[in-house]
Specification:
By secondary structure, the chain is of the alpha+beta class. It contains four helices and eight strands, in the order H-E-H-E-E-E-H-E-H-E-E-E. Bound molecules: carboxymethyldethia coenzyme *A (CMX).
């Protein structure tokens, strides 16, 4: 089954001229109990200040971002218990929450990964923090690691 799906996907790619492009780890998402304390901790650790702080209402979080070479670290504080971060903090406490991969064409990657058997948490991308279109894969289909795909909306 997997082999035939891969062949079919390869054939579609040949027809459409599209190839999967996953560019880099865009950021690591780290859940913290307080964005203020997290900012202080990571500013000390990295020797640099966060370049932005942003509230994302749809995700029930306040986020901050540190640039780290080509990648970033995103800190996430839950503003209430309703979102994914609130639930994660309640269950596991602070720690690495997700790995975000920068992709060139998020719709294409979602299609490709679903065809390969990965479980999508979002069929279509939605607006996320830091000017990105985002969508997640279920950690049960990615070795227990929550994966976010993101595409720069400002490119
Ligand atoms: N990494 C790895 N596993 C995770 C996880 C994470 N971040 N969050 C939850 N899980 C695991 C749980 O441990 C649990 O495993 P078990 O069944 O073995 O106990 C399973 O997934 C189900 O977890 P849950 O606590 O019952 O939580 P839900 O099913 O309600 O939701 C998830 C889990 C991943 C589907 C949900 O968090 C989600 O949809 N996430 C995507 C959106 C998101 O994370 N937004 C926050 C970031 C926003 C941003 O970056 O701006």
């Amino acid at each position: 089954m997997g082999k035939w799906v891969a062949i079919a996907v390869g054939f579609c790619r040949y027809l459409t001229g599209k190839i999967p492009v996953i560019n880099k780890i865009e950021h690591l998402g780290i859940a913290v109990s307080s964005i203020e304390d997290g900012n202080q901790l990571f500013a000390d650790l990295l020797g640099t200040q966060p370049y932005k702080e942003e509230r994302v209402e749809s995700e029930h979080v306040i986020t901050s971002f540190f640039q780290l070479g080509e990648s970033k670290i995103e800190l996430l504080e839950a503003v209430d218990g309703q979102g994914a971060i609130g639930k994660f903090m309640e269950k596991r406490g602070a720690g690495i929450h997700h790995i975000a991969l920068d992709v060139t064409d998020i719709e294409f990657e979602l299609d490709r990964l679903q065809n390969l058997g990965f479980v999508l948490l979002h069929q279509t991308p939605k607006p996320g923090a830091d000017g990105k279109k985002i969508a997640f894969l279920h950690p049960k289909s990615t070795a227990g690691v929550l994966i976010e795909l993101c595409e720069d909306m400002e490119k």
